[in-house]
Design goal:
Elements: E1 2-6, E2 13-17, H1 19-25, H2 30-48, E3 57-60, E4 66-71, H3 77-85, H4 101-114, E5 116-122, E6 125-134, E7 139-146, H5 155-169, E8 174-180, H6 184-192, E9 196-201, E10 204-210, H7 215-219
Parallel strand pairs: 7-8
Antiparallel strand pairs: 1-2, 3-4, 4-5, 5-6, 6-7, 8-10, 9-10
The structure holds coenzyme A.
């Protein structure tokens, strides 16, 4: 008989066969049985857990510039605040990024608790940031910010493809976002990535894309 263990992170699913544990422990040895099941569960979780770690990747844009793409870590916090402090225009996407350093700091503090992020780095400078914010076990919200001097060379497309592939690897099957109709650059990018509009409200629309398992291979 199998025991399904679903962990909070959608990629973290484990199946444990406990029959052997019961046989080994024998009837009545509850403590030993529990201990064996716990050990077996942990080993199986480690073995079955898909590698949701993002492998750092180098990308080259059509301007011939090379960028490092890697997952955000806590040491990046200050440099990311700097990126958004110099980001223009402020409040371009539903009030984001916030207009000043205290509000940028607060926003990024909140984000690091509830999201996963990728960064594009040029030299030592963070120049693009993508955010994945889980909504449910299968759905995740996506957004992207590319610093003004690095736009229109394909960076947004490439880092988004890598981010969607990473979301797929983590076990998500749908990616959603909301954007303003007036943000034609963003809408152009999202359409290119396969998003389509699912609903609209006022001057905003919701867009969605279903992830396919092949997305990872295609983005590589
Ligand atoms: C939207 C954004 C992420 C695009 O990043 P980017 O690195 O310039 O994107 P790319 O160069 O890969 O371009 C991707 C597509 O976006 C669209 N696009 C980008 N710049 C555009 C422009 N100036 N005019 C029209 N379409 C544009 C095009 O469809 C383009 O595809 P193409 O290169 O095949 O024509 C960037 O402009 C940005 O950070 N904007 C501010 C933040 C924002 O609005 N984020 C979205 C939040 S919902």
């Amino acid at each position: 008989m199998g025991l399904d263990l679903s962990f909070q992170h959608p990629g973290f699913k484990a199946r444990v066969n406990d029959r052997l544990c019961y046989q080994l422990a024998g009837e009545g040895h509850f403590v030993l049985r529990f201990w064996l099941i716990a050990c077996s569960t942990w080993i199986q979780v480690m073995a079955d857990c898909p590698d949701a770690l993002f492998k750092p990747t180098e990308i080259r844009t059509r301007k011939g510039r090379t960028f490092q793409v890697r997952a955000y870590s806590s040491e990046d916090f200050g440099a990311l605040v700097e990126m958004y402090a110099s980001f223009e225009p402020k409040r371009v996407a539903q009030g984001l990024p916030p207009p000043d350093v205290p509000r940028i700091t607060h926003w990024l503090d909140q984000l690091k608790i509830k999201s996963d992020s990728l960064l594009a780095i040029y030299g030592k400078k963070i120049v693009a940031h993508t955010i994945l914010c889980p909504i449910s076990q299968t759905e995740v919200e996506f957004t992207i910010f590319v610093l003004q001097d690095y736009r229109e060379e394909g960076l947004g497309t490439r880092i988004s493809q890598l981010t969607l592939a990473w979301a797929s690897e983590m076990g998500f099957s749908k990616v959603l976002l909301t954007t303003e109709f007036t943000n034609y650059r963003a809408i152009g990018l999202f359409r290119k990535l396969g998003f389509s509009t699912t609903s609209s409200y006022g001057d905003e629309c919701e867009m969605k894309v279903e992830l396919r398992a092949e997305a990872k291979a295609e983005a590589a």
